[in-house]
Amino acid sequence: MFTIDKYIVVDSLKQAYELNQSKRNTIIGGMLWLKMGRKNIGTAIDLTSLNLNKIEESEESFKIGCMSTLRDIEVHNGLNSYFNGLFSKSVEHIVGVQMRNMATVGGSVYSKFGFSDILTSLLSLNCYVELYKGGTITLKEYVEMPLNNDILVSIIIMKDKRNASYSSHRISSTDLPVLTCAVSNIEKQWNIVLGARPMKAKLTQFTLNEKPNEENIKSMISNIIDSTSFGTNYRGSEKYRQILADVLIRRNIEEILHGGKYAS
Ligand SMILES: Cc1cc2nc3c(=O)[nH]c(=O)nc-3n(C[C@H](O)[C@H](O)[C@H](O)COP(=O)(O)OP(=O)(O)OC[C@H]3O[C@@H](n4cnc5c(N)ncnc54)[C@H](O)[C@@H]3O)c2cc1C
User: Distance, CA 240 to ligand 1 centroid (Å)?
Assistant: First the structure.
């Protein structure tokens, strides 16, 4: 359980940022992860009055405000039809609808959880994060940065016509994942993301022929597995995760190339 001394619904991002510079103060999203901890919060900073719970679609991109929930992106027609159901597939196993109705995209991406399904899928796309102080940077750069006291304002996904696919493996359907995998393809470029290794999601990029054959795919997968570190925890061993990585990457490639559900 956590405690809160003071609760402020801010009326600007500037006010939120200034309050957030004190180590005792904390931005609150859906509060689902925060409530699992024991933090003594000085001031809880609530962003709900800032109109940041919208998903906006333009010709070039989708802009997802940080207070949008995982459920908002799960059921968003534009996002899901553009990315072939990637978003609904990447959040459907996160606990349940009630939980996804509360968990925010901002709280999920800001935290860079090692087990994050949504970080895995977003990292396979041409995706940026808008930070209040740090400006707009690629999600890839953001993932590699240490956490700081900035505010994640929105997530921007470029519409670049890539194909994408997502799969994860869990011991039981609503548990945290043993491994997550997203694959996207645009022209000759393949983007493979592996998360829950059990470390945070990692993107590997490859260039293959326009029409890759079985040999090309096999060699790409074994290169990715060799160059990615996998760990062991009570959900699975390093070896088990390597085997799963082979299967999940293949399934996603198969879906992108042939629309099939599983590779042979
Ligand atoms: C029981 C349980 C099971 C879960 N299972 C899964 C799972 O299987 N897969 C998965 O991907 N996720 C899972 N999650 C994580 C969940 O999906 C959310 O990512 C998580 O709850 C954080 O979102 P939140 O809105 O609750 O953030 P909060 O708990 O409110 O905040 C989390 C952190 O982010 C900070 N923060 C929030 N918003 C911002 C912002 N806009 N800018 C800067 N900092 C911000 C907060 O200060 C805090 O440090 C699980 C969570 C729980 C509690």
Answer: 27
Residue nearest to ligand 1 atom 36, measured at CA = 107
Cα dihedral across residues 198, 238, 139, 119: positive or negative? negative
Closest atom of ligand 1 to CA, residue 33? 29
**DSSP for residue 129:** E
pTM of the predicted protein model? 0.96
Ligand 1 centre to CA of 113 (Å) is 8
Q: Return the amino acid letter for 250.
A: R
Write the pLDDT tens digit of every residue in 72-114.
999 999 999 999 999 999 999 999 999 999 999 999 999 999 9
The tokens 């001394």 sit on which residue?
5
Least confident of 99-103, 142-146, 255-259: 255-259
The span from the CA of 196 to the CA of 200, in Å, is 6
- Dig out the tokens for 124 from the structure: 């396979």
